Amino acid sequence: MRELVLTEIGRLDVREAPIPQPGPGEALIRVAATGICGSDVHGYTGENGRRFPGQVMGHESSGTIAALGTGVDELAVGTAVTFNPVVVPAEDAAAFAGREQHHPGKHVIGVAKEIPAAFADYVVVPARNVVALPDGLPIELGALIEPLAVAVHAVRRLPAGSLARVLVIGGGPIGQSIVIALRDAGAGTIIVSEMDAARRELVRRLGAETIDPADGPVADQLRAGGGLADAALDAVGITPTLRDAFTSTTLGAPICLVGMGSPQVTIDAFLVSTEERSLIGSFTYGSDDFADATEIIGADPDVYRTLISREIDVADADTAFSALAAGDGTPGKVLVRFDREEETR
Ligand SMILES: [Zn+2]
Q1: Cα of 69 to ligand 1 centre, how many Å?
Q2: Contact 130/29 with Cβ under 8 angstroms?
Q3: Where, residue-wise, is CATH 3.40.50.720 in the chain?
Q4: What integer best gives the mean pLDDT of the chain?
Q5: Contacts of residue 21, Cβ cutoff 8 Å, sequence gap at least 6
Q6: Could you give phi then psi for residue 174, rounded to 5 degrees?
Q7: What's the confidence (pLDDT) of residue 135?
Q8: Which of 69, 78, 321, 339 has its CA 20 to 30 A from that of 30?
Q9: Where do the CATH 3.90.180.10 domains begin and end in the chain?
Q10: Is the pLDDT of residue 344 over 80?
Q11: Residues 211-224, buried b or exposed e (16+ Cβ, 10 A)?
């Protein structure tokens, strides 16, 4: 089979490898499509230090079950599936159900460097992490479930009753998924702050209003256009965007930090202390969020196709990564298709 190896920082190569075999309790998935995550791009460039040479990345993926290890009775070969990449040890799975991301020994398939992940024709995952796709869902849309689960979880981190007027900072793939998750959660007005015109256009198609932070302070633009926000989600995660979140929300507002743009940020302390805003972290999702994201996508597949900007062949992956790293203006998600040229494999 083919796999995409991060041979060195800034270089992905297609390598031939034996098809892995599922062990007890595992499933082998024939990959159809795997999405390129911002974290993969920042790993490719070495910026985030969270990917390593020799690694096969890929954690946003869909495909069909090709084989099952012993002891797996609840799945069937041929089923269209995605997988939840957040893995907790089998013996703790029940105790951590719904809050898997809080397990101190969890690992994330596609991030953990020693585990070959889904930028490959086949991937082995624990059967308990496999999630069947809704009936009739075009298979490539299954690769969008993981980023939507990130968004579903982030929105749920905000207190109920804070969603009348919500600011989303960053209109990239996670910001786009957050708009959809906010809509599903019954949010009122959703305003996305995004510098890129193509991304603003995309999130407007999803029902959000937009502002361009280059047009002036985000807080001033909000005041001029209906008022400060009751809550904010920062899908970028750098000092200037967090500052926008704090200054563009009402006193006492909750702010959810989901973007990981920088390992360190500076915060204006009085916007937290004297004005009683709270900063809430969000990382990945629990299995309930993941299941709910699967349902949300199944209910309206056409909306999700809006999020896909390009679908590329395996051989073009390195070119796509370096273009994304250079900021080529791609507004939405790029999917690597492993199910093309099927007849020659
Ligand atoms: Zn991701």
Answers
A1: 27
A2: yes
A3: 150-281
A4: 96
A5: 28, 67, 69, 124
A6: -75, -45
A7: 94
A8: 321
A9: 2-132+307-344
A10: no
A11: beeeeeebbebbee
Distance 166 CA to ligand 1 centre (A): 23
Q: 7: burial class by Cβ within 10 Å (0-12, 13-18, 19+)? A: middle
Cα 341 to middle of ligand 1, angstroms: 26
| pLDDT one-digit tens code per residue, 250-287 | 999 999 999 998 889 999 999 999 999 999 999 999 99
What's the CATH code, domain 2-132+307-344?
3.90.180.10
Residue in 23, 24, 6, 5 with CA at minimum distance from that of residue 15: 5
For residue 39, the CA-to-ligand 1 centroid distance in Å is 6
Residues 61/35, Cβ–Cβ less than 8 Å? yes
In 3D, which of 284, 26, 285, 296 has the Cα closest to residue 134? 296
Distance 324 CA to ligand 1 centre (A): 14
Superfamily name with CATH number, domain 150-281: NAD(P)-binding Rossmann-like Domain (3.40.50.720)
Query: How far is it, in rounded angstroms, from Cα 255 to Cα 168?
Result: 10
Cβ–Cβ < 8 Å for 52, 86: no
- How do 333-337 and 26-35 pair as beta strands? antiparallel
Paired tokens of 265: 């940020």
Going from the Cα of 199 to the center of ligand 1, the distance in angstroms, rounded, reads 18
CA of 247 to the centre of ligand 1 (A): 28
